[in-house]
């Protein structure tokens, strides 16, 4: 039997992954087409390079602890932090270059 939320064309809130899998096994995403929104997703090429990074033992313990709080691996957290820093650095260097080109010679 369908719930009232499903009858209205609303995707229900799921209490577990299993409940969600069971729901989608019985329903088509097309039933909820009006509720869906477009997402902007950037697909990057696969990572191909690897680096070794030496940390102090205490820093590695902190990294592992912070990653555990977020439910991710410590290498995943380290990569995300580094990628964020690189992205911000790229933005700063692009802005600096733009300012330099605007200055009169």
Overall description:
This protein is an all-alpha fold. It has four helices and no strands. The termini are far apart. The chain has helices spanning 4-7, 17-26, 57-70, 74-102.
Q: Could you state the order of secondary-structure elements as H and E?
A: HHHH
Class based on secondary structure composition and strand pairing: mainly alpha
Gyration radius, rounded: 23 Å
Low-confidence stretches: 1-5
State the end-to-end CA separation. Answer: 75 Å
* Largest β sheet strand count, sense and barrel closure: none
Topology:
Blueprint: H1 4-7, H2 17-26, H3 57-70, H4 74-102
Helix pairs in contact: 3-4
In short:
With about 100 residues, the chain is mainly alpha-helical.
Overview features:
disordered N terminus
